[in-house]
Each structure stands twice: as C-alpha cells, then as structure tokens.
Amino acid sequence: MARDFAPGQTATLWVYDLATDAAREVLTSSTLLFEAPNWMSDGSALVVNGGGRLFWAPTGATPGDAELTEIDLGGIPEINNDHVLAPDGSTVYVSAQDGHLYAIPLDGSGPRQVSRDHGDFRHYLHGVSRDGSTLAYIGLSWEGEQRVTNVYLLPLGGSEIQLTDDGFQDDGAEFGPGPDGAEWVYFNSERAGGVAGHAQLFRMRPDGASVTQLTHDERVNWFPHPSPDGAHVVYVSYPPGTEGHPENIADVRIRLTTPAGGTGRELVTVFGGQGAMNVGSWAPNSSAFAYVSYSEV
After folding, report:
1. 284 contacts 228 by C-beta, under 8 angstroms
2. Average pLDDT value over all residues in the chain
3. What is the pLDDT of residues 254-278, one digit of tens each?
4. InterPro entries in the record, alphabetically (predicted)?
5. Is 180 exposed, middle or buried (0-12, 13-18, 19+ CB in 10 A)?
6. What is the pLDDT, as a whole number, of residue 182?
7. How many C-beta atoms lie closer than 10 Å to residue 42's C-beta?
8. 3-state class of 163 per DSSP?
9. What pLDDT digit, counting tens, does each position of 166-219 carry?
10. In-domain check, residue 145
11. Is 232 contained in some domain?
12. How far is the C-alpha of 93 from the C-alpha of 113, rounded, in Å?
C-alpha cells in the first residue's frame, strides 16, 4: 500500500548544489506524497514515485511552475520507493508491491519482470552497476517469525548472487566507486553494534570481500549514495536509537562523507526520513544531489 500524507502535510523536492552549499526548491505538493528522487542521465529531470506510480519533474523549472508528469509503467503492480535508472537513461528499474523487480523501457515498449520467484521472498532495489549489467538489491525473507535481510546482486539475464548471510539487518545496497576507483557495493548494516537501532555505513567488493566500515558514530546512518565521480558519499542520518528508516521523524540529517569514510559533514536537517533519499539521487556530473523533505505533523 502506497504511503500517504498525514493531515495537512506536504512534500517538497529539493536539489542541493555542492558549489553553493545550498538547496533550491524544485516543487512542493500537498496532493501527492512523492519520494526517492533519481536523476535522469542527461540531467534534465528527476524521477520520483508516489501513490504506487512513477513521475518525472524538470530540474530547471521555476518553483511553482514545475509539474510532475506520470511515466507509464505498463500495468505492473503498484511500486514502492526503490527504483533506479540505467546508466544510459533508457530504462528505469523498479521494485513492485508484489515483491518483484521490473524493467520499464522509457521508449514505451513495455515492462518485463527481471527477478525470479523464490517463494516467500521480496526484492528491494537500490543500485545498478556502472556498465548497466547488474542490479543490487536487498532480499527480504523469513526464518519463522524472524525478518531476514541480505545484500544480493542480479546480473541481468543471469542468476542472483548473495553477498551477505548473517543475522544483521542490511539495506541500501548500491554500486559506486571506492577510494581506489574500482566499483564497490555500498550498504548500511546493524552488524557494527549487533543490535537494532545502530546502523552504520559499509562497502564491500562485488564478490562480498573486503567489507569496510565507513561511519563510526552514535547516530543511525542509512542509505549511502556514492557520487558518480567517486568523491563523495551522501547519506541519511537518524537520531541515536532509531530502528529502521521510519517516516515523520524530526532531526533527520543529510550528511556528506567520502568513500574512505569518516563522520559526515552535516548539510541539511529535514523532517521525514523514509522517502527522503532512499535511492541514488546524484546529478550525472556529481555537482548536486536531490532529496525530499516533508512538513511536520
């Protein structure tokens, strides 16, 4: 079921420019709770989800004039806020409420399911490799009443590869350059503290080796998004003790660090959390990123 506003609430889409160290408003809505911006590969538009559907908004419009235009999903089930764009801009990959991943060609040629049935198992998409050949996602399964999440890769047209297998909650698996310039998989996990409410950021090789912790602080750090040029990692930071990545939380901070790690520099504080920046939202040239804030309730 798609998320909806609390009474009187609004959603605002922002673009944060690193050169000016300031955010500018793109659009605000009181009728559609939109989430999780991606950037089109040509830099002209942002893609967001809302109401189980997908939309795009031009990045250059004057606030108040920008409008959301719906993207035809071809009749697949409602989607959630986990979606990514192929590096060449031809396709958007989405996670649907039926637990599967779908490819949506933007030429209108029709969707196709890219994940396979694995019984009581759900796919939550977060990343795509730089060559467009492989998706990174979180697989959710159950062991009795225990909810289990792990990091997986899906070579398109191939079989899934499980990278983690432990009892800790993992999320936000996303490809990006490491300090060495090679491609790594970034993710957040509760493995450092061993208890819920203490997620930190990590990266590992695409074969699951060399797991490296990037943040070591008291806050709950979630959804690392490495910039295309390999210079930065932007992420969402919750107050200490927050379990999961809930909505409508005060003092949610957007921070900036590097692929080498370290405590992030705080850029903005928003109300919300869930939906603010669930997926990679960097501009193609790494000069800016997008996020969503919500008015307080």
Report:
1. yes
2. 95
3. 999 999 999 889 999 999 999 999 9
4. 6-blade_b-propeller_TolB-like (IPR011042)
5. exposed
6. 97
7. 8
8. coil
9. 889 999 999 999 999 999 999 999 998 877 789 999 999 999 999 999 999 999
10. yes
11. yes
12. 10
Share of the chain above pLDDT 90, in %: 89
Write out the H or E segment, with its range, that includes residue 39: strand 34-39
The DSSP bridge pattern shows strands 212-213 and 11-17 to be unpaired
- Domain count of the chain? 1
Host domain of residue 174: 11-294
Residue type, 29: S
Label residues 243-263 b or e (16+ Cβ within 10 Å = b). eebebbbeebbbbbbbbebee
Residue of 165, 233, 163 lying closest to 200 (CA atoms)? 233
Give the per-residue pLDDT at 194: 75
> What is the rounded average pLDDT of the residues 93-98?
97
Please give the helix or strand (H or E) that residue 203 lies within, else none: strand 200-204
d(CA 56, CA 41): 13
- Whether 18 is in a domain gets the answer yes
Other Cβ atoms within 10 Å of 212 Cβ, number: 16
- 216 closest CA partner among 194, 199, 234, 230: 199
This prediction has a pTM of 0.96
Looking at residue 65, its pLDDT comes to 74
Q: What is the mean pLDDT of residues 27-47?
A: 96
3-state SS, residue 25: strand
The answer to whether the beta carbons of residues 248 and 239 sit under 8 Å apart is no
> 156 is written with which tokens?
């398109």
CATH of the domain at 175: 2.120.10.30
The amino acid at 273: G
Give strand pairing partners of 123: 139
- Give the per-residue pLDDT at 158: 93
For residue 145, the model assigns a pLDDT of: 83
5 part of a folded domain:
no
